[in-house]
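Shall we go through a protein fold together, starting from nothing but its sequence? Please make up or recall a protein chain and show it to me in full. Go ahead whenever you are ready, and we will take it from there.
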Amino acid sequence: MTATAFRPWLDRSGRLSPLKLAVFLALFAPGLWTFLSYAQGSLGPRPLTEAIHQTGLWAIRFLMISLAVTPLRRVLQWPRLIVLRRMIGVAAFGYAALHLAIYTLDQAFDWRMIVSEIALRFYLTIGFLALCGLLALAATSTDGMIRRLGGRRWRRLHRLVYVIGVLALIHYVIQSKLDVAEPLVVAGLFLWLMACRAVVWLGGDDPGLSFPSLAGLAVAAGLVTAAGEALYYHLANHFDAWRVLGAYLGWYFDRRPGWIVLAICLVLSVASLVRAHRAGARQWRADPRSGAAEAA
């Protein structure tokens, strides 16, 4: 096991990485905030229940951020982002394990009750499956395990993260019950990022992540998110799906998940365009003749 496994704020050469150090410290912030809020009695009338929700929420957020690293490093043309993926993924597992630990404490370590709840409640079952998957990925995330498994088998195993992401999203949406705005936003962003990844897979040497394609995927993700919201409320609460969609044109349209997904994805698409323009400008300054040759 390398030194960086114990000191993740170092880069491969053993030098301090300000980016990795900042992210490493930031990963502890939600847990520290939850602990201090619990100690101060500011988590509401059911503090353990709120702590369960907070740790589970951050587990899913960090899982989705880890899944976003690879697409975003291409979209934003920022290769150094890849060094953060392992750290964020392990943090997602840590918060998920803490989520289960606090739930166990809240149930007064009644193992029979805990096992029966996980087995009989669908959203708890899939949440537990997602946790088991994260455990397998965290346990094999070290350089030593990569060497033991071999690169091909390791990559095949870690592709399970996409299945885990879907399971975590289903768990998140179901347990949220009536307030599904944030879960739908996360699901919409996940859809956009996976679509970007699919474009890269299908594109081969030409990944095709141009601004028009990214913006088109943003519009598609926003529309699917809006349709998903209408379908959810129709199935769960028997609301008229067309009235839910009509709310997207109402005075509070900015609060709707579909619009939020569209806005975030469009911002990332514009950021990609700006990065590409700056990269082209740097290349031209380095060799003006290459730009002239291309124009000719």
Notes: The chain has two domains: 1-176, 180-296.
